[in-house]
Each structure stands twice: as structure tokens, then as C-alpha cells.
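User: My collaborator and I are trying to settle a disagreement about how two of our proteins should look. Neither of us wants to argue from intuition anymore, so we agreed to look at predicted structures for both before our next call. Could you fold the first one, then the second, and keep them clearly separated?

Assistant: That sounds like a sensible way to settle it. I'll keep them separate. The first protein:
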Amino acid sequence: ITLPPFHGKGNVENYLDWEKNVEQLFSFHGVSEEIKVSLATLSFQRHAMYWWTSLEKERRINHEPPIQYWNELRSALRRRHIPPYYDRELMDKLQRLKQGSSSVEEYRKSMEFLMMRAGIREEERTTISRFQSGLNLEIRDKVELLPYRDLNELVQLCSRVENQLKRKSFRKEFTPSYSKSFKKEGHSSLPYPKEEKEKEKEKEKSSFKAPSKESKSSEIKCFKCLGRGHIASQCPTKKTMVLKAQDHYSSLDEATSSSSSSEEEAIDSEEEILPCEGDLLLVRRLLNNQPSDLDQSQRENLFQTKCKVLENTCSLIVDGGSTSNYCSTKLVDKLALTTKPHPKPYRMQWINEERGTVVNQQASIPISIGKYKKEVLCDIVPLEVSHVLLGRPWQFDKKTIHDGLTNKISFQHLVKKFVWCPLSLSQVNEDQLKLKAKKDEEEKIKKKQKEKKRKEFSLWRERRARYKKTLTLVSSSFFWCQIKMAMEDEHLL
């Protein structure tokens, strides 16, 4: 039997996976209890092997019997690699688990994984209730009205509803808008026989002279433009209704129709320009290069603002060039936020960095700005420029609209429109200076502590050297005293 190697180094998940694999191999091959411990310890390498050797030695010194059964070895390994708070942390993650931006199938896998790790065995109706409470509202409201027998049918229904919602959102986003010019073009593209018939009819009508109705038409008054000579249905200043996406419409009168037609002509005359080729040049403003009081435009500024995370003020950046949502490792450590393994770990490489950083952890960040409150799933990276960085995934989910002039971001949330205003350049630089001063102060404190430890270590070395010297003198004097006494006994002195 070949067991998977165990190095004794890593997180709790690595050990639990190894333990599960070993138990499956033992069960499959029918290994007896007498050789399970020997086979398992043979797969120990590096730190695990050192730990096992020291454990055996310690048990021999304490006159304790050696470990002979797999249950005893498993208990010792669990005490070594699983912290006492692990079960409580799993329960907290399971209680706070929500679907969020993940799919229904990914949400179910996460719930089943946490339940398996925590060793929870409950009735199926309890599991169904737990699964429903974490679903998104738009899916849960529809599924609650549908019949189902067990958890598998419920998950299948949720997946169907999720696919329907995706199709509806896709249709709304790509619904074409029709304009007046399109209708005019449609009328101009009639076949030639119909045009000839219309011309013949017009000639026939022109051959008959219509009676003059100038006296009667002058008495008619229009209720729209208050002019005379026509009725409201024949008013020349008609309103043009332009349909837009998501069932919105706007009305334009004839006075503005000329501008809209010019805009439509400009749209027709657009030219597609491909991106330029070449290496990108990243330029950032230094802390020492402070802008003047008059230079307060948002032309060279990313969208930066402040938010609340668990009642703590944090910096936030919205950047459409980022392919993921990120949060700082310092923020996660400082607020003790719960993390979970990344479903698809990847390596991120910064500028002038050779190997890059492995991104394998995620955390749900409860962001609140004013009345907007939402948990955002972010990848944990060593971020220095901000505490939270919202990228394309957040902008895609919220369907945000960015105003390039004012640098404001607007979006819909819970049937309400939110408009985020950015910080000014002076506010951004003020925050950066405060962070720099705080960082310098922390570095000074660390430097003082390091200097203090170095002095304490040097004092300890001096005391140790004096102690060894004294011990050498004492031992040498005691040795010569013994020689002198032996020589006196032999009458050599």
C-alpha cells in the first residue's frame, strides 16, 4: 500500500484531506489495526517525521506506552494540527454563508463542504431551510412558490430560476432602441412598384382642384401650440417618443428633433479605432508632489472614497481596470474577518516582482456608505494603496454608470438610485500623508523595540560569558584542591 506523503506543514484542510485519504485506503485494502500506525508513520516526511520521533522519545522518557492503534495516532495528530477554535469557526462560517455572487451549485458545494468538515448530521428539512435562508432574494422568492420533495429537486429548481434570470437580464441589456431616423429609412426603402402607384395617385389628386377653406381653417385653434389653422392631431410640433432599454422613454418635440437627427448622423459616421500597440506606461502622483489648491479636478484621479467596515473607516477605490475585487491582508487581520479558500487560486504578479503572489483566500467584506450596505466577496492580497478595491465584478453586478467629468458613480440598489461622490485631490493627499505619518511612527516603534531586544541579547551574552568564566575558574580551583589532597595523602608534599 502506498499512502500519500504528509509533511506536517500547512493549514488544517491539508491534514484533514490526508487523514480522509488514509482512512479510505485502509478501508479499501482491509488493513489490520496492528500495522495501521506503522504504515501511517512511514508516510511522514520532514516536520511530521521530526514530530513523530520527538513524540516517541517523550513517551519513553515519561514511561508511557507507545502508540499502537490508529485512533490514538489520529487523536495525537488532531491535537497537533487542528486548533481548538476550528469547530467554532466552521460553525460561524456555516451560519453566515450566503450565496452572494456565486452560482447556486457553488453555494451548495460550499455548504456541504462546511457541514462535512464540522461533522453536522441533521434532518433533510433542516438542511433545506438552511439552504433557502442563504439564497439570493430574487431566487428564493420564486422557489418558495414551487413544489419540491427533497434537497436535490430544490437545487435543480434554483438552478433553472437562476438561468431564467440571467436570460432576462441579458435581454434587457441588449434590447435595441428605435429612433425616428430608422423609421424614415424604413419608409424610403419601399419597392419601386408601390412608389410608382403613389406618384400616379398624387397626379390624379392634383388634377382636381380642392375648394378653398382658408376662412374655416383660420377659425380652428390648436390646444397644444395655441396656434390657428389646424387641430391638435395635425399639430406640426408633434412629440417624438424614443424608446430606450429597461422600459424607459423620453419625449422630444420638433424643436429638438433637429439636434437628435444630427446626433444620429454623427453616430452613423463613427469610426472604429483599434487599441494602440506597445507597452503600457503607469504614472502615479508622488506624495511629495502636492497639487495646488486650484487644481481640484478629477482628471488624473481614480475614484477614491471612504466606507465603513464593521464601524471602522476604510479607504475604497473603484477601478474598472481590475479583473477582481480585492481587500488588504492588513484589513482582514486587523478586523479578524473570516476567510475561506479561493475556489480557483491564481498567481498575481506586481510590477518589478519576479515570482508574484499566490491568491488563495477570500473574505466577505461588509461595506456600508450612507444607506448603502452590502457584503462584497473579495480576494485577499497584500494591498497597500487602499483597504478595499472594487473592480469589474462589482461594476458588472451593480450595472454602474461612471461620469467621466465629475468622477461620480451611480447605480441601482434595492429599487433606489445611489450616487457615490469621490474624494477631492486635497482629501486624498491628506489621507495619504496621515497614513504615511502613521506608518513612519509604527516603523519607529518597531525599530525601538528591535534595538531594545538587541541590547537585551547583548547583555545576556555578556552575563553568559562571565558565568562561564566563573564556572571555569571554580572548577579548576576545585580540581587542584583535589590533587593537592591526594599528594598529601601519598606524602608527596
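The second protein, kept apart from the first:
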Amino acid sequence: MKQHVEVKLLHGMLPTCPHEGCKSKLKIDSCSKFLTPRLIEIMSQRIKEASIPVTEKVYCPYPKCSALMSKSEVLEYSKSALREAARSGARNCIKCNGCFCIDCKVPWHNNMSCSDYKRRNPYPHPEDAKLKNLAATNLWRQCVKCNHMIELAAGCYHMTCRHLLCNLFLADVAMNFAILVELSGKTRRQLASVHFGMRRTLLTVNLTKGEEEDDEEYYDSDSDEYWIALL
């Protein structure tokens, strides 16, 4: 059990009951006896991450903090210190109290609009430019909903972002989308192995016979990039 929980946590997942057919999530109380304080902290973080919808997640941009918050809770917290928080986009971190921009995801830019800031700082962090170059080299694509980079390692053209997979099963079809990528593949239904950082996730892929003949519809010749298509 200890090894099972550790592996799941270190791979960015919440551990479930290891018994076949049981999908119950394990609780911290039942795992605290054999987990180290560090792993308990990680498990607590994973539980919080899972409880906040992808579109609601926001991280403190200050490197020494990086606290995870939901947009609603950080807005409520910021209202006490910033009267025009909702209109201005300024927020206070609930952990370090640092002021930041909820739209630009950077420390607050005084006397500058978000559009001006983004124009002057297309890559506010040096790592952003490196990531974009790496993504272009490896043909990665970015989810328009959660902004995570994904890579097609095997399978067909269409992928469902792992962060929206649960929404699909909840019948929230409007949240489901497909990303068209350049790599070829002609399997009808299979599980594709997708890598994001050090994580490995299974995504459901589906391509009916003949779809590859219509790929031109998804290609934008002006921007030389593929666009996101809703299923």
C-alpha cells in the first residue's frame, strides 16, 4: 500500500484503492501512518488541486510562494484590501499577500494596462520563450482551456485534454474539445500515451475512418498553425 500511494503521488495523481474494480480515493487519515511529512504535504496539495476546476485554478506568481488558489477565493480575499479588485484585475495572494494581476499571472504592474504589459513583455519569464521554442520543435500543442502543453506520442489526430476528460463523462459536452496535430495515425479507437513534463496520462482518442481526408479544414494557412476544434 505504501509503495502504491507513493508512486501515485509522485506521478501527480491522487491514489485510489488498489483493489481491482474499486475506484475510491484514499484519504490522508488512512495514509498518514506510513507516509512521510513531505508526502502528506504532497497528498494534501493533490487533494486541493483535484477540488478546484481547471478554469478556476490560479497560482501565486511569486517564486517563493506559488500558492494554489481558486479565482473565487482569491477575489473574496482581495476585496478586503483592494476596493476595485474585481474591476482592476489586481489580487492579493491568500498565503503571502503579494499583489498580482489575475489576467497576466504576474506581480502587479502599476500604472500599466494588461494589454500594454503584454505588449512590452511578451515573455515575462525567460522560461516562457524557451518553452515555446521547445514546443515548436517537438510539435506540442497548448490546450486553450487549461494552457497545459500536450504531445501526441501515438494514435490518431484527435485528443481530449486530460483535464476535461472528467467533464466529458459528466456529460458536459460543451467543455470537450479536440486538438488537431501534424503527426499521422490511423487507429480508430485506442489509448494514446501522452507526456506532460514528468507526468504520463492516458487520453481517449477517436478517429473514424476517412477523417484524415478532411484535415485541410482545420489548417489555418495564414497563421501556419492548427486551430482548436470543438467536438
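Some points you might bring to the call about the second protein. The first strand starts at residue 57 and ends at 59. The radius of gyration is 20 Å.
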